[in-house]
Design a protein that fits this description.
alpha+beta, 2 domains, eleven-stranded mixed beta sheet, four-stranded mixed beta sheet, about 25% strand
């Protein structure tokens, strides 16, 4: 069970693809563009899907939120998957690493809903009887007083019925949460048209015309937090209450987020991004930093992704900043300005237990406009540095066998 708070900074880039389509756009699968600055958004759900898919497909981990094809040809629902675990939260946490990491929303079992409904009706009848007795005691021969009391009783019953509506879902907050990612620069959106081999309807003599939207390049930053209190307090407390007398404390701790789970998640974040090569996704991980704080410390830097900017290093003769950013086409065209982030890490150094990181060789970091080896910089500040590549090797070797 993890006991330390930590923060995650993940930077990756995309090339000639749509990093995350906007389902609410007027155009089909149009990139999520912030009209105020021309930058491209990527949802946390897209990032978590990358992680989940790699955990399941490459590491063989059981995942709760995934597509399951049922015998009748339909896809399994959240309810059917929940029922497959007999509505048992302990078994779900024990089996599914994505729930231990990110949490989830689960339907209440039908038995629980029936019991809640029965309890609600019993309470409503009891309340109605009490209110009728109260109304009669107020009656003193004046019909107006009795009618007014009856109307008030009806209003109370209506309010009570609304207040005791049974919950249909149970929300388990995950200890690992990511904010939405965003490119560090304005992007250009290019429309592509083509034809598919197969027609969309019968008796058609040619394939269907298709339209897609891509950005030539995007350098994207994500920020995440690992909140140990969610594990130590909330998840433990919920399971302790849920399985009172049925599970020991040791059994409960065994199904909560562990350090190995966290390492697998980071491994899948890096290599899941690296291996996701499809028509709509061409990605490369560039920098992953995890700042781990001492146990018991509640303070942290926050918004790591916003403490980095980029410097355009490729020759450009475009005076307008946004137009110049839209011409970025490769990681070699930019460098990461680390000054602000390094300043905050210096400030928070006494609270930091260690920094774990992995950096792509093509990713250049700058400090005071000069290239800097951030690993060596942290060591110079007496901060312990762990190479995530060494941590990842245990999973790489297992995956290759």
């Amino acid at each position: 069970m993890i006991k330390n708070r930590s923060e995650i900074l993940f930077i990756y880039d995309v090339r000639d693809c749509n990093p995350n389509g906007d389902p609410g756009s007027d155009e089909p699968n149009y990139p999520r563009i912030d009209e105020s600055d021309g930058k491209c958004w990527v949802s946390d759900l897209r990032l978590k899907r990358t992680i989940r898919d790699y955990l399941h497909n490459y590491l063989g981990e059981e995942i709760f939120f995934r597509e399951i094809l049922l015998p009748d040809g339909t896809l399994g629902t959240r309810e059917s998957i929940w029922d497959a675990y007999n509505g048992n939260l302990f078994d779900v946490l024990k089996s599914c690493i994505d729930i231990r990491c990110f949490g989830g929303v689960f339907p209440l079992s039908k038995k629980k809903e029936a019991k809640d409904d029965k309890d609600k009706k019993t309470k409503a009848k009891k309340k109605e009887k009490e209110q009728q007795i109260e109304s009669k005691s107020l009656f003193n021969g004046d019909n107006e007083i009795f009618e007014t009391t009856e109307n008030a009783t009806e209003e109370k019953e209506a309010s009570a019925a609304i207040a005791v509506q049974p919950k249909t879902n149970f929300h388990l907050t995950g200890p690992i949460q990511f904010a939405w990612g965003k490119t560090y620069h304005a992007v250009e959106v290019i429309r592509h048209e083509g034809t598919s081999v197969l027609p969309s309807k019968e008796n058609k003599m040619q394939g269907t015309i298709t339209t897609s939207y891509k950005i030539p390049y995007g350098l994207i930053g994500f920020y995440g937090v690992v909140n140990e209190n969610i594990v130590v307090k909330e998840h433990f407390r919920i399971l302790k209450s849920y399985f009172s007398g049925q599970k020991t404390d040791e059994e409960i701790v065994s199904v909560l987020l562990s350090q190995k789970d966290l390492d697998k998640m980071l491994f899948s974040l890096w290599f899941g991004t690296k291996t996701l090569k499809t028509t709509s996704k061409m990605q490369s991980p560039r920098l992953l930093i995890q700042i781990v704080y001492h146990e018991g410390n509640l303070d942290f830097i926050g918004d790591l992704d916003r403490k980095i900017t980029i410097k355009i290093t490729s020759p450009t003769y475009i005076a307008n900043r946004i137009d110049a950013e839209r011409k970025i086409r490769n990681i070699s065209d930019v460098a990461l300005q680390m000054d602000k982030l390094l300043y905050f890490i210096d400030t928070y150094a006494p609270l930091i237990k260690e920094i774990r990181l992995i950096q792509d060789k093509e990713c250049v970091c700058l400090y005071c406009d000069e290239p800097v080896d951030i690993s060596e910089y942290f060591k110079s500040k007496s901060i312990a540095v762990i190479n995530l590549g060494d941590i990842f090797s245990q999973f790489s070797q297992k995956n290759s066998n």
